[in-house]
Specification:
This protein is an alpha/beta fold and 591 residues long. The chain has a domain of 324 residues: Up-down Bundle (ABC transporter transmembrane region fold). Helix content is 63%, strand content 10%. The chain contains 20 helices and 10 strands. The strands form 2 sheets. It has a 6-stranded mixed β-sheet, with helices on both faces. The protein has a 4-stranded antiparallel β-sheet with strand order 2-1-4-5, covered by helices on one side. Helix 4 packs antiparallel against helix 6, helix 6 packs antiparallel against helix 11 and helix 19 crosses helix 20. It is elongated, with a radius of gyration of 35 Å. The N terminus is likely disordered.
Length: 591
């Protein structure tokens, strides 16, 4: 956690909030209307003490008619104040909600397009925390704190001017207090800014730990790891609380100091003013007017000291969100992307590909791989775990870019095209199938959003999924739960295969697609894959060699290198790694 906090740039000033302007700019009209309402309410607030002064001074005049007029004026001022406050609240709050919604959308859109290489450096839970917790802070600032701060700034400046116009002598006494108030705001404000960023980091870390544990709750429970997981989350949460406690204590001390100094000054000025009234230097109405202005100014300063802390927290939150929006993805689309030749044939070429995962820079996952896959050819990738089989599929989808070498589809290098251009012609069945919290129908239709119900059902039949789906409580409309908790591993895999079949892509990538299937379902799915493979380029990653015996070619990988290529019979006859794997698997199967 400390390392993560040190890696991020610390908030240096509230000026970081200026990064929000691009999101506010489209709603300038709303900003202007809110500013006008704010100016109206501030002006009315500053006029009020003048009316009070006249009322107080008129008490000795004995003119009831004038007194009545003053109270009518009071009522009019109150109406203006109420109207302006309501208008300001409407536009400011609406602006805050609109801007935060735009920020959340911008962050989500950015993150959704980032490559897996980027996700290796940040936890998903932390991203969620930034989208939720950090944007809530920004909502509080835009929808409330900024307008309150501006109102208090206007009140402070206007009040100081009117204090001087009411009594220069007393105003000078008030100004003597300013340095005593500003110094603790600056000194403690710096510490508060650092603590605010640290607190947000701990909250994000807590969210990341919770997301990680809950997404793997079955694994946690099966290994009776609940107590350790609870303790780990409890530690992070407690650190978040301790950080917040320190931040709150610092802000409380700042508030105590500022408010005491402000109101101590008001009492002192009032004492001096009372003596001036007794000596006839000023009227009682002027003293009351001055005191009201002094209270307004004191209240504005005290409020600004509190709002300053909120602005600093929001500045840190803004930095964290802008950090994501401005993040550089190691995998990018070119400025002038090329198109695939039409029609797409599905020829794949890997030319001297070298690749290391960003998290494991010293261990090559692929070491100089060169491979040509002809259109319509079925090629199986086999070998021990960690040989680089799944890595080839990830590079074909351009989830990562190789450090050297080139990967081409129909003669065009993948980095020369927009990612959606070539991915539109690929269908991937991952080793760990993803099931969304939606119906079976929508999960399969994810492969081709415009597909009809009949198309979805046909794909399900081809993947041997139709029978178990129709047996669900609501059939294809059954909600499958988060991550498909209602399904077995084999059923999830068949849903994923049906999704790929429905996509009807030119290139089919199968990463252990039948590993979780029983023998009967595997046979049915294998027949479906065989039918689907006709006229398509298929790359199959498999540990179970029985599923790849019919492949046109089998590529044997070991430690990131190709060690053999051939048919099943040829590779068995050659001996070597494939023959040993085949002997081991088929002997065990016979046994």
């Amino acid at each position: 956690m400390a390392e993560a906090g040190e890696e991020r740039a610390k908030s240096k000033k509230v000026g970081a909030l200026a990064a929000l302007w691009p999101f506010v700019r489209p709603y300038r009209t709303m900003v202007v209307l809110a500013a006008l309402a704010l100016f109206l309410t501030s002006t009315v607030s500053l006029v009020l003490p003048m009316a009070v002064r006249r009322v107080v001074d008129s008490f000795g005049a004995g003119n009831i008619a004038i007194l009545d007029q003053y109270f009518v004026a009071f009522l009019a001022i109150a109406a203006l104040l109420a109207f302006g406050t309501g208008v300001r609240y409407y536009f400011v709050t609406r602006l805050g909600e609109r801007v935060v919604a735009d920020i959340r959308r911008a962050v989500f859109d950015k993150v959704l397009g980032m490559s897996p290489a980027w996700f290796e450096r940040i936890m998903t839970g932390e991203i969620v925390s930034r989208i939720t917790t950090d944007t809530t802070l920004i909502l509080s600032v835009i929808g409330s704190s900024v307008s309150v701060a501006l109102r208090n700034v206007l009140t402070l400046l206007g009040g100081l001017v009117l204090l001087a116009l009411t009594s220069v002598k007393l105003a000078l006494y008030v100004l003597l207090l300013v340095p005593a108030i500003v110094v603790p705001i600056i000194v403690l404000g710096r510490r508060l800014r650092r603590l605010s960023r640290e607190n947000q980091d701990w909250i994000a870390n807590s969210s990341g730990k919770a997301t990680e544990a809950l997404s793997a709750v079955q694994t946690v429970q099966s290994f009776t790891h609940e107590m350790a997981t609870k303790a780990e989350f409890g530690h992070v949460t407690e650190q978040s609380f301790l950080s917040a406690k320190t931040r709150i204590a610092t802000r409380s001390i700042l508030t105590v100091i500022v408010i005491f100094l402000v109101f101590a000054g008001v009492v002192g000025v009032l004492w001096i003013g009372a003596r001036d009234v007794r000596n006839g230097v000023m009227t009682a109405g002027e003293l009351v007017q001055f005191v009201i202005y002094a209270v307004l100014v004191a209240g504005a300063v005290g409020s600004l000291s509190e709002i300053w802390g909120e602005l600093q927290r929001a500045a840190g939150a803004t930095e964290r969100l802008i950090e994501i929006i401005n993040a550089e993805d190691p995998v990018n689309d070119p400025a002038a992307p090329k198109a695939l030749p039409s029609p797409v044939k599905g020829a794949i070429a890997l030319d001297k590909v070298m690749f290391r995962y960003p998290s494991r820079p010293d261990a090559p996952a692929l070491n100089g791989i060169s491979l040509m896959v002809e259109p319509g050819e079925t090629v199986a990738l086999v070998g021990p775990s960690g040989a680089g089989k799944s890595t080839i599929l990830q590079l074909l989808m351009r989830f990562y870019d190789p450090q050297s070498g080139e990967i081409r589809l129909d003669g065009v290098a993948l980095p020369e095209m927009a990612r959606e251009t070539f991915r539109a012609h690929m269908a991937l069945v991952p080793q760990d199938p993803v099931i969304f919290a939606a119906s079976a129908m929508e999960n399969i239709r994810f492969g081709r959003p415009g597909a009809s119900d009949a198309d979805v059902m046909e794909a399900a039949r081809a993947a041997a999924a139709h029978d178990f789906i129709t047996a669900l409580p609501q059939g294809y409309d059954t909600w499958l739960g988060e991550r498909g908790v209602m399904l077995s591993g084999g059923q999830k895999q068949r849903i994923a295969i049906a999704r790929a079949i429905l996509r009807d892509a030119r290139v089919l990538l199968l990463d252990e697609a039948t590993s979780a299937l029983d023998a009967e379902s595997e046979r049915a799915v294998q027949e479906a894959v065989d039918r689907l493979s006709q006229g398509r380029t298929v790359l199959v990653v498999a540990h179970r060699l029985a599923t790849v015996k019919k492949a046109d070619r089998i590529v044997v990988l070991d430690q990131g290198r190709i060690v053999a290529i051939g048919s099943h019979d040829d590779l068995v006859a050659q001996g070597g790694l494939y023959a040993r794997l085949a002997k081991l698997q088929f002997t065990e199967g016979a046994a």
